[in-house]
Amino acid sequence: MTGGLSGFGLRTAQWLADKGAKTLVLLSRSGLSRLEAHKAVNELRARGVRVEVFACDVADPSALAAVFAEVQASLPPMRGIVHAAMVLED
User: Fold this and answer.
1) How far is it, in rounded angstroms, from Cα 41 to Cα 63?
2) What pLDDT score was predicted for residue 50?
3) Which DSSP symbol is given to 75?
4) What stretch of H or E contains 74?
5) Which of 34, 62, 66, 82 is least surrounded by Cβ atoms within 10 Å, i.e. has the fewest?
6) How far apart are CA 5 and CA 26, in angstroms?
7) 62 in helix, strand or coil?
8) What is the rounded distance in angstroms from the CA atom of residue 58 to the CA atom of residue 14?
9) What span, in angstroms and rounded, lies between the C-alpha atoms of 45 and 80?
10) Burial bucket for residue 44 (CB in 10 Å: 0-12, 13-18, 19+)
11) What value, to the nearest 5°, has the Cα angle with vertex 19 and ends 25 and 3?
């Protein structure tokens, strides 16, 4: 899930866990740099969800390819992708 450590992406990750997701891969440009992100990931893990976090700019094809390669090598097959990364300027 891109944008998975804040706002809509984080809420979607929590919703997926509520619906039974066992493994979540959360991507964010800044990774786990914010306290809210750390707390949310720890809460998901405490519920038994395997959460893998990657600091990755999804606009960088080589960085994204590296994440996909690591996920493919070490995690169960992907069943879906949620693109929730965004910048809101209002």
Assistant:
1) 22
2) 97
3) S
4) helix 61-74
5) 62
6) 7
7) helix
8) 21
9) 20
10) buried
11) 35
Opening angle at CA 61, ends 29 and 27, nearest 5: 30
Q: What angle do CA 52, 53, 57 make, to 5 degrees?
A: 140
Give the model confidence (pLDDT) of 43-64 as tens digits. Answer: 999 999 999 999 999 999 999 9
3-state secondary structure of 63: helix
12: pLDDT strictly greater than 90: yes
User: Within a 13 Å sphere around the CA of 9, how many CA atoms are in the beta-carbon half?
Assistant: 23
Q: What is the mean pLDDT of residues 1-5?
A: 92
What is the per-residue DSSP string for 2-58?
BTTTSHHHHHHHHHHHHTT--EEEEEETT-S-SHHHHHHHHHHHHTT-EEEEEE--T
